[in-house]
Amino acid sequence: MTTARFTGRTALVTGGGSGIGRAVALAFAAEGANVVVAGRRQEPLDGTVTLIEAAGGKALAVTGDVSRAADAEALVAAAVDHFGSLDVAVNNAGVFRGGAPLAELSEEDWHTQLDINVTGVFLALRAEIRRMRTQPSGGAIVNIASTFGVHTRHPGAAAYAASKAAVSVLTRGAALDHIRDGVRINAVSPGAVDTPMSLRPGETETDRAERTKAALPLGRISATEEVAAAVLHMASDAAASTVGTDLVVDSGATA
Q: Which residue of 97, 119, 146, 204 could cross-link 164, Cys pair, CB 3.0 to 4.6 Å?
């Protein structure tokens, strides 16, 4: 591995088994970090670890549900026990339950999105901050929000947008509470990204490319690696004075 920005540091990535989370985990590992990937299912996490180790990096997979306080605390403990510190955390785990008008949304889908997208971020944040503020070097946290929320709204996604708006505001509040503790907190809000979530029902990747070519100022959706690059910047020393920012990565959709 090439010595780079995160050599010797430990990064925890929730929702690290696929999509943006996997891309973020791979990017941190490529820049020298020891990476802990967390999620509810072991198999996709093991896949991420295999990719990291095949490239010469160090990684650990830990299963858990961030909507449970004990699990969130156990993720942090596992990172510290295995690698000795927790220097960076990326709270990426999230779900989307929508596609229909709000009046048709079930209470189960409403609670699922709030439990994972909001409470999960809160519980993970709390556990991460409590550890990082005890370290002389502090730490950096990046929460993954969304352009659906404070930046834009779309039909069929009201509950999801509400949950992600909460992540953006929670990020800013936590950043103010804890920057003097040496813990720097920011958010990244992706727009449409090259993951299955950006495909409409029955749509192929070719269909999506044609639709977004006309709809987005950039003419295409973002690659997961581009979102990962934004996350790494926000977690890096180059962004040392960036506090409580919500960075949009959305091909110009909300410009």
A: 146
- Give the CATH number, domain containing residue 169: 3.40.50.720
Residue in 160, 193, 216, 251 annotated catalytic: 160
pTM for this entry? 0.95
The helix or strand, by DSSP H or E, that contains position 26, with its residue range, turns out to be helix 19-30
Say if residues 38 and 91 touch (Cβ distance below 8 Å). no
What does each C-alpha distance from 156 to 36, 192, 240, 253 come to in angstroms? 34, 15, 38, 18
Residue of 239, 123, 118, 226 whose CA lies nearest to 185? 239
Q: What's the domain count of the chain? A: 1
Cα–Cα distance between 217 and 38 in angstroms, integer? 34
The pLDDT tens digits of the residues spanning 118-130 come to 999 999 999 999 9
Instruction: Return the beta strands (E) in 31-79 as ranges.
Output: 34-39, 58-63
pLDDT in tens, 200-211: 889 999 999 999
Parent domain of 86: 10-249
